Amino acid sequence: SALNAISSYNHSPDDGVLQFPRAAPYLLQSPASCEHTLPLFGPPKTVRMVQTSTVVTASVATVAAAVVGYAVFFDYRRRSQADFRRTLRRNERRQARAEKEEAEESTRRQRDAIKARVDEAKEEGFPAGVEEREAYFNEQVMSGEMLSSDRTDWPPFSQPQRCSDTDASTATKSVESALAFYKGLKVYPAPGDLIKIYDSTVPKPILDILAEMIAYDSTLDIRTRSPGINLGDIPNVGLD
After folding, report:
1. Transmembrane region positions (predicted)?
2. For residues 64 and 41, what is the distance between their CA atoms, to the nearest angstrom?
């Protein structure tokens, strides 16, 4: 405080002249001489910003130099050392084999999940009456269309699924959409003719899953309808 500053003044033991504390020379300078004087409490913000920018630039340059140096060293070893080249090829083959095994395991898990959903649908059963079958057909086809329209960038069925929530949600929707179309096939009089309609209206990734379901269900007859079956009994709702 001002009182503390005043109380710090003292007289010189040599000449008895009143002395200011150590910071006093800044206070005694004239206004003109203070124009370019640094403040008492450190450098101005502009100086600190320049210093920070310099440090960042130097750090980036150091990292870049290290990366370039490593790349040069790596290329030198690759060209000059046969053992190093063999190690690289061995690591590449190991990585490719691991990726292939991961893809195969992911596909196997997807197929197991599809088979489980088909088994659940068969255990639940399907309606037998004409009106019940018609209502069931309309409901399932509309459900399948709504699920398939939620996403237009479905990943291929053979592509390994990652573990993120978004990919898991996409995979679930694709299976549920295919399952709904599968249930529609189960109650349609001529499944073979309905599949032709599916081919032109259902996204291909979902068709691939549906094909897995059809292949697994040996009781589903997808041959072309025989004469005498009236397809007008169950309309093609939502598939025009």
Report:
1. 55-76
2. 36
Question: So what's the pLDDT on residue 172?
Answer: 84
Please tell me whether residues 75 and 145 are part of one structural domain: no
Nearest to 159 by CA among 216, 102, 93: 102
CA angle 50, 32, 40 (to 5 degrees): 45
pTM for the whole structure: 0.55
Distances (CA, A) of 122 to 125, 188, 233, 234: 5, 15, 23, 21
- Whether 109 is in a domain gets the answer yes
Condensed to tens digits (0 to 9), the pLDDT of residues 160-217 reads 445 455 556 677 889 999 999 999 999 999 998 999 999 999 999 999 999 999 999 9
User: For 88-116, b where at least 16 C-beta lie within 10 A, e where not — what string?
Assistant: eeeeeeeeeeeeeeeeeebeeebeeebee
Residues 7 and 76: their CA atoms lie apart, in Å, by 72
In angstroms, the Cα distances linking 138 to 148, 186, 215 are: 15, 12, 23
Q: What percent of the chain has pLDDT over 70?
A: 64
Which structural domain, as residue segments, surrounds residue 147?
128-151+169-224
pLDDT tens-digit series, residues 150-167: 754 445 554 544 545 555
**Does 102 score more than 80 pLDDT?**
yes
- Residue pair 238/141 in contact (Cβ under 8 Å)? The answer is yes
CA distances from 179 to 140, 211, 213 (A): 9, 11, 8
